[in-house]
């Protein structure tokens, strides 16, 4: 019982780590919440003993890619995706993908993210505009200035997200070379809006209370198990004497 409870404590501690990261990014635009998936683990050395006990563990955290609420900002360089997909940007070590469309113009006119990564165009390369002229971004991601198209935002989707890994608060990178980006179907680019985090503050608060209560119960189970073991040892010692 003690080992099972201890395993449960470890799983709840990992849940708390995931939850803490979600809460810390509750106000990060386009952030996607981390979730956990529990399974039961059987130690290989115990499988043939007939006394195998299953231990609760977090088998693999997963990322909730459900869309967050789109909020109007009135900033022409703020864009959000209504539907699937990611904005493609030029990271320091290759392409990165994000749902955070809080862009701005660098000193040289390049459209960049808050971290200074160049926003990639569908034709390759970056997008450059004049800060003195208004910018219009259509629903297909075409960027226009003074009535002329200067490029199109590169919006990428993936047939599967298992080959994506988080990098930083709201970026993803491809870790599976076989995973290739493609244009998403039915996704529209919304100018003057930003996508909020899908963490859910109220949900996180309820989840936190639940995990803390589970942690307290498991701690009590560990204490009871230790007390039972101690009493058993003392009783054996009395019989032996």
What is this structure's SSE topology?
Layout: H1 2-24, E1 34-35, E2 38-42, E3 54-58, E4 62-63, E5 70-72, E6 79-82, E7 86-91, E8 94-98, E9 104-105, E10 111-112, E11 118-119, E12 135-137, E13 142-145, E14 148-152, E15 155-156, E16 164-167, E17 171-174, E18 188-191, E19 193-195, H2 201-240
Helix pairs in contact: 1-2
Measure the end-to-end span. 28 Å
Radius of gyration: 25 Å
In terms of DSSP E residues, the strand content is 25-35%
Order of helices and strands: HEEEEEEEEEEEEEEEEEEEH
Question: What's the pLDDT, averaged over the residues?
Answer: 83
What's the helical proportion of residues?
A: 25-40%
**In terms of structural class, how would the helical and strand content be classed?**
alpha+beta
Low-confidence stretches: 40-52
Sketch the major β-sheet.
Answer: 6 strands, antiparallel
Q: Can you give keywords for this protein?
A:
single chain; 241 residues; alpha+beta; six-stranded antiparallel β-sheet; three-stranded antiparallel β-sheet; 2 helices; 26% helix; 28% strand; elongated
How would you describe this protein?
Strands 7, 8, 11, 15, 16 and 17 form a six-stranded antiparallel beta sheet that branches. This protein has a three-stranded antiparallel beta sheet with strand order 12-13-14, with no helix packed on it. Strands 1-4 form a two-stranded antiparallel sheet. It is elongated and about 90 Å long. The chain has helices spanning 2-24, 201-240, and strands at 34-35, 38-42, 54-58, 62-63, 70-72, 79-82, 86-91, 94-98, 104-105, 111-112, 118-119, 135-137, 142-145, 148-152, 155-156, 164-167, 171-174, 188-191, 193-195. The chain is an alpha+beta fold and 241 residues long. It contains two helices and 19 strands. The two termini are 28 Å apart.
